[in-house]
Amino acid sequence: MRQLLSGDARHVAPLVLGAVLTYDSPEGTVSVRITEVEAYLGPHDSLHPDPGSHTFRGQTGRNKPMFGPAGHLYVYFTYGMHYCANIVCGPPGTASALLLRGGEIVDGEDLARTRRPTSKSAKDLASGPARLATALGLTTADSGRDALGEPFRLELPVTRARDISTGPRVGVSGAGGSHAYPWRYWLTGDPTVSRYKAAKARPA
DNA sequence: CGGTCGATACACT
DNA sequence: GTGTATCGACCGT
Q1: Pick from A46, A61, A77, A177: most CB atoms within 10 A?
Q2: Which residues touch strand B (CB under 7 A)?
Q3: Statement: the CB of A36 is under 7 Å from strand C
Q4: pTM of the model
Q5: A72 Cβ partners below 8 Å, 6+ apart?
Q6: Strand C: which bases are under 7 Å from protein Cβ?
Q7: A118 touches strand C (CB under 7 A)
Q8: What is the rounded CA–CA span in Å between residue A55 and residue A66?
Q9: Is the CB of A130 under 7 A from strand C?
Q10: Model confidence over A10-25: pLDDT tens digits?
Q11: Architecture of domain A2-187
Q12: A20 CB contacts (<8 Å, ≥6 apart)?
């Protein structure tokens, strides 16, 4: 499992789409089926330098988990009010990761609604990176924890998802030429894919 | 359904 | 001091 996640985030992305991430928190259990991710590379990828990545200028106190083993969480705080969660990919030292951009709540919907009272419909509970992190109950306190061990669980789909779309990044300023590369992966047509700045899709 | 805009506190330089 | 890997409210169609 960890070995499977230890490759380039862009190769891991199609394997993770459709996977179910569960967190048995003290408050209760919530499970999310991942429907949208975005790849980020480390500072050592000379083929595709990634100025949009938090690791672009090297290791810092915040991004440290990204330099660790695959399967761990990297959670950061942004815009003064939102948390976003990544699953670390690549072998230790490479600092590649997948930002969890969207998902569908498949267990613990009541608790997810308590955490996200503003959601009107069920599909809004985790459709967006900060929404997904909130619904799952993740904060920076969880950054660095292992998503493959208790109280977390990651279950890959039995068969690899078939209809996958790819597109450019969302919401990263100063990413420059990196917009030309397909960094974002989602399940084609899934209603829980985030709607912001929707990009033109192309087949994966 | 789709576009615009203000909020807010933290990490990093 | 500066910029932010976003959200939700509000508007128009």
Answers
A1: A77
A2: A 54, 57, 60-63, 77, 79-81, 140, 195, 198
A3: no
A4: 0.93
A5: A65, A87, A88, A144, A145, A146, A147
A6: 3-9
A7: yes
A8: 8
A9: yes
A10: 999 999 999 999 999 9
A11: Roll (3.10)
A12: A31, A32, A33, A34, A106, A153, A154, A155
C-alpha–C-alpha distance, residues A14 and A198, integer Å: 19
Please identify which residue in the block is written with the tokens 């190769």.
Answer: A11
pLDDT of amino acid A177: 47
Proximity of residue A16 CB to strand C below 7 A: no
CA→C1' distance for A24 and C11 (Å): 40
Beta bridge partners of A166: A185, A202
Write out which nucleotides of chain B lie closer than 7 A to a protein Cβ: 2-3, 7-13
Closest to A42 in 3D by CA, of A24, A60, A19, A29:
A60
- pLDDT bracket for residue A197 (50, 70, 90): low
